[in-house]
Amino acid sequence: MNVSILGGGAWGTTLAQTLTDNGNLVVIRDINKEFVEKINVEHVHPFFGMSIPSSIRATLDLKETLDFSDVVVLCVPTKAMRMVLKECNKELTKPTLFINVSKGIEPETSLRVSEIVEEEIDEKNLMGYVALSGPSHAEEVILRKATALVAASKNEALACKVQALFSNEKYMRVYTSDDVIGVEAGGAMKNAIAIVSGVASGMGLGENARAMLITRGIKEILSIVLALGGKMETVYGLSGIGDLIVTASSLNSRNFQCGLKIGRGMTVEEAMGSIVQSVEGVRAIHAGHEIGIKYNLELPIIDEAFKVVEGKLSAKEALHNLLSRSLKTEKYW
Ligand SMILES: NC(=O)C1=CN([C@@H]2O[C@H](COP(=O)(O)OP(=O)(O)OC[C@H]3O[C@@H](n4cnc5c(N)ncnc54)[C@H](O)[C@@H]3O)[C@@H](O)[C@H]2O)C=CC1
Ligand SMILES: O=C(CO)COP(=O)(O)O
């Protein structure tokens, strides 16, 4: 089938290869002319430089991309998501299935991408929505290394459609889920904890500290997912703990790297500015902090991380605050 991808960066172009491997025709829309040329003329991945199938086409033209199919994969940074969806809504002429692979919650509204899609896309243009998420560094998927994802939708048939679209027996296995909230919120919040984990490493703390922050971070992700109406079992799955494992201790993770740089003394702006690809975790820390206030949640790690990224506290002071909290019994729910 024909598939349109919005955002031809690290992940979008990698998924274009998977969709092409599975026998589909893909058009990517990106706003970066250089990326479009790399894909169309050199047939290489714009970030990783390796060859990609020559049938993948890229364009700067949104209308051409939307006209190409009735399946659109959203793969732009979540800070651009609302704007991109507004532009799409003006150009759409038919009911379209939106598959979102971007990971974030809008800090100003605490809305997940599915909710932003519902706000910005007219009902007549919205065939349905599926969130596709899980532990999947583009650096490995582009090399066709074995990976598993989860496709979540309120509509089971659409989740199955996306499962079939992306799965192949060589390297990609997709599960389905009905828990859109859990998949979206878990996928967004793991980036916040990945930054914290990177900060700890950058400060010169050891693996014990990282394990502590990741494990107690899971408790905070769980609190947020449950408060938003998601399921506990989803947090224990690919889009939750699975993605946290891959992100919170890997140099392939832009969020971990960003934290590493902050922990070594860079400001948040310097750290973000030094990484060319999207870093979603700082916005996720803001979103998590806001959700904590709204639902009266106890989120000590996210709240201390918020003070650090706001420049109100050093990472060392934040660590001291966490270690000097009142002693308690270990509980996860
Ligand atoms: N890189 C990875 O391994 C994975 C990334 N993701 C998620 O996918 C999303 C995108 O990440 P990456 O592809 O890694 O980021 P990236 O920074 O490599 O690519 C983003 C692309 O979006 C384009 N873009 C930005 N604003 C746009 C707009 N207004 N209209 C159209 N295109 C626009 C940029 O030019 C860039 O090519 C993020 O939310 C990330 O968390 C999810 C799974 C894996
Ligand atoms: O979401 C990802 C892997 O599943 C990518 O993580 P980073 O954005 O931290 O690189």
TrEMBL record:
It is an enzyme of class 1 (oxidoreductase). GO terms for molecular function: glycerol-3-phosphate dehydrogenase (NAD+) activity; glycerol-3-phosphate dehydrogenase (NADP+) activity; NAD binding. GO terms for cellular component: cytosol. Residues 3-158 form the Glycerol-3-phosphate dehydrogenase NAD-dependent N-terminal domain. Residues 179-319 form the Glycerol-3-phosphate dehydrogenase NAD-dependent C-terminal domain. Pathway: Membrane lipid metabolism; glycerophospholipid metabolism. NADPH binds at W11, K103, A138, R254, E280. Substrate binds at K103, R254, N255. NAD(+) binds at G7, G8, G9, A10, W11, G12, A138, R254. The active site is at K190. The keyword NAD applies. Belongs to the NAD-dependent glycerol-3-phosphate dehydrogenase family. This is Glycerol-3-phosphate dehydrogenase [NAD(P)+]. It comes from Anaeroplasma bactoclasticum. The lineage of its organism: Bacteria, Bacillati, Mycoplasmatota, Mollicutes, Anaeroplasmatales.
